[in-house]
Specification:
The chain is built from twelve helices and 13 strands. It has helices at 3-11, 14-26, 29-36, 40-54, 70-97, 110-115, 117-127, 140-149, 210-221, 235-243, 253-259, 293-302, and strands spanning 59-62, 65-68, 102-108, 131-137, 154-158, 166-181, 191-192, 202-204, 228-231, 249-252, 267-272, 278-285, 311-313. The strands form three sheets. Strands 3, 4, 5, 6, 7, 10, 11, 12 and 13 form a nine-stranded mixed sheet that branches. A two-stranded antiparallel ribbon has the order 1-2. Strands 8-9 form a two-stranded parallel ribbon. Helix 2 crosses helix 3, helix 2 (14-26) crosses helix 4 (40-54) and helix 2 (14-26) packs across helix 5 (70-97). The longest helix has 28 residues, at 70-97.
Length: 315
Amino acid sequence: MTSSERSFARRIDLTSLQLFVAVCELGSIGRAAEREFIAASAISKRLSDLEATLGTPLLYRHARGVDLTPAGESLLHHARSVLYSLEKMQGELSEYADGVRGHVRVHANISAIVQFLPEDLGAFTREHDAIKIDLEEHLSSEVVRAVHEGAADLGVCHVAEGSNELQSLPYRDDALALIVPAGHMLASRRSIAFVDSLDYDHVGLHNNSSIYVAMHQAALAANRSIRLRIHVTGLDAMCRMIENGLGVGVMPLRAFELMQGGIGRGLTSVALQDAWAARQIRLIARDFSTLPVAARMLVKHLHTPAAATPAQLAA
């Protein structure tokens, strides 16, 4: 942080930010004063001081209330972000007073969540019941972005090699398979090249999912297109669509095997011969060595012994 940035941070008053957001939400200094139990003149003075500090008008004042200037719209966005972060910080710190001795924010893709994390996180929390884990499901690209921006301490997802200034460690191997109805023409095959499935309708995941991106690239390489009949957001929904004759689909093999006792009973899997179908799920962080103690303990629990040195990665 530069000296000018520190000076700016000292001059911004959080109470004034809260009152500014209230005025914006209600469209009136008077109504904001009633909600916040403060004199309207006091709010008006704080807003004037805030405008003086920032060196630009934030509000257009008129008889009906106020409207935001372009600078005010920008400040409203940042003020809400700052206040939300403070509320989140208060919530997390209050948990330490209640006995929680660690808090790890984890973002993971659907493959990791369905196949591996339930057992691994369950085992970890049984050993460390004072550590709270917040887990959110996102696409791999969004997981990388969240870790890079600091919204997550740890990411678990598929990543490509490159240079994104993040570090990674191996977590689990992941194999993709083609899922078809039990009576389908391809059901008797032990393995198949993905291109051979392109003669049939497909049920696919979200366009930005790592599985769909790999499928799309494979189809382009073969100068073919995917006859995508429907997009779904979850693997269970994919199985139900395939079971009801809407197409075939590509999904992680272990995830399918875990669902076969229920949703996937009328389906079968065919191994994919393509190199891209053998994948690795990795743990990612901005810097493993600077993670909080609780997060480092979780990394140690999840990290496979195969690799000792973090590698550079890219989304």
